[in-house]
Design goal:
With 236 residues, the chain is of the alpha/beta class. The chain contains 8 helices and 9 strands. It is globular, with a radius of gyration of 17 Å.
Amino acid sequence: MPAYKRILLKLSGEALMGDDPYGINRDTLAGIVAEVKGICDLGVEIGVVIGGGNIFRGVAPAATGMDRATADYMGMLATVMNALALQDAMRHAGVNSRVQSALNIEQVVEPYIRGKAIRYLEEGKVVIFAAGTGNPFFTTDTAAALRGSEIGAEIVIKATKVDGVYTADPMRDPSATRFRRISFDEAIARNLKVMDATAFALCRDQKLPVNVFSIFKPGALKRVVLGEDEGTLVHC
């Protein structure tokens, strides 16, 4: 039995690159969709917030010295492109999904409407939230915390390249150990970079737990949803 009825999955744009320097790796995307389908089949309601780093990385050199708000809007548009690619891959996998954008681009995707998003979730559709919060100066981590709170998700599940939160960078320190569970307050005291500060504070204030796990570990997402010891659970 799933431990959660409704979740918010945060996917970074970099997760879609695979081993490519930027862009979308189709095999990697198909693998992620297969993991999502596995929990759809359990009857879990899924919202997804997706980043845009995989696309924006390719144009980042041109954005050097650019106005911050302009660069952030470019990043939001990159998330819309990723959301459309994710929706298309889900369609091929037999997963019914909808894209809602915080930026108004009605010819391409529908606007974000909270009530409509909740209805889609109740109908068993995956809802992909694009364009972050729709505002510059906020990350997609913050968008995940915000949308998770708005739709009544029971947990934010953050997909990363590392299988949890560690005492130190496991890539640099072989003695680093993974936290199985850790409180928001302890994570702040230890200065652990789980999410950006705004997102982290919002999750803490809303008593919305966060689980950090590796999207590249087969079956990890399902184990998180089943409540097994996978990744790191950050809780109140």
